[in-house]
Amino acid sequence: xxxxxxxxxxxxVCKELAHEAKMPTSQIYWxxxxxxxxxxxxxxxxxxxxxxxxxxxxxxxxxxxxxSCWKYMWPRVxxxxxxxxxxxxxxxxxxxxxxxPQLGLSFAEWAKDKRPVWDRICDxxxxxxxxxxxxxxxxxxxxxxxxxxxSATLSVNKARKFDWTGHMDSYEAFAKTFEKMKALKQIxx
Length: 189
Prior knowledge:
By secondary structure, this protein is an all-alpha fold. It has helices at 3-16, 27-31, 39-51, 70-80, 107-111, 115-125, 139-146, 157-161, 170-183.
């Protein structure tokens, strides 16, 4: 699932509409700890494990190797696109019960009538070929992720014990992904 594309689509549309690009989640997930996975480290560990004899018949988790808090990451991602979001996001729903899913705003519902706005953004930026990217947004998947009222982090410690040294800063991974999408004209530059 390419969460980065969905974030870009949402934030760019919110910016176009002069709306705050609030992250649709609960207070627990907003303030909790999260990991991210970026394709190059996934590929690197796959090659490392499949070509290293001591890794035979072993299974490994793969994430970037850092942990972030959406309270700080989401505003950074929004700022990348020139959108404003506060790290002091206000929530309309009451504080959730730990372990009971809660979603104040559905990305899937939000996205239903925003396609014309996306098309307008693409036309204004001269990248009409990016219009179909709207259909690649992982809206329901993001709802599933953002409804969590618990942290769900993985560890790469086992891979490190096998001498894998890969690591990626998650914000840098998002920024590199957005730059690649721009270069491919999947989103406006």
